[in-house]
Amino acid sequence: MDDLIVYRLYHEDEKVREYLLVVNAANIKKDFDWIEKNNDFDASLTDLSDEYALIAVQGPKAQAWLQKLTETDLSEIPFYEFRIGQIGPSENVIISNTGYTGSGGFELYIKNDIAADIWKLLMEHADEFGAVPCGLGARDTLRLEKGYCLYGNDLSDETSPIEAGLSWVVKTKIKSEFISKELFAKQKKEGVAKKLTGFILDSRRVPRNGYKIFTEDEQKEIGVVTSGTQSPMLGKPIGMGYIDKEYLEEGQKIKIHIGRKMHEATIKKPPFV
Fold this sequence. Notes:
four-stranded antiparallel sheet; 2 domains
């Protein structure tokens, strides 16, 4: 359905468990409808998507940069954990040691009415740390260099975590039942026909989602590109795609159909950087 982060929030009443689900923005309605449909636990559900903003403070100097604005000791927040603290004069900010650039940092979940103020505070100290504002396009190049999957490209309703190389998030040996458990257990045991892998192009052409992948002799179609970009660090086009299992060996030569030509690429298991 989606890859998401679940936050278990503190609640004074120990009998009450409160969770925050952070889903991909394009999946908000689909995910909420699915949760409502499968709510057999008498849980109270609220969609707060339109009330919150998120600012990702990322990069090797992100902690020092953000620490200037908060009394919360950021060094005490483990990877993929969070604290609720203040940023500048604003209270009750979720400060999460997460991000999708591969270089570390924090994500701030904040109410809309204070988002602009926090942004301005960050920008006041940006030059000191060599930080610049950027959007999802820049983030996309960084996540791909690390081999991180993007929902809607490398993950979808039609792929399984086993095919995507995410077996580590699927625990099929636990007693609890969950949707697709039987299928995932079978895939773990028997293997899958295709898997997500990476490749580096020899030419300057950037591969895009949906481009077809062929054998080196161009005689057989063996896969499809899911993500591609020009790697800022390598100075070369890189990409990921689902490829038939017999062609996944590191160093294997393949061809990608771009425009009217075939372009040579080499299989490279992520991360690229």
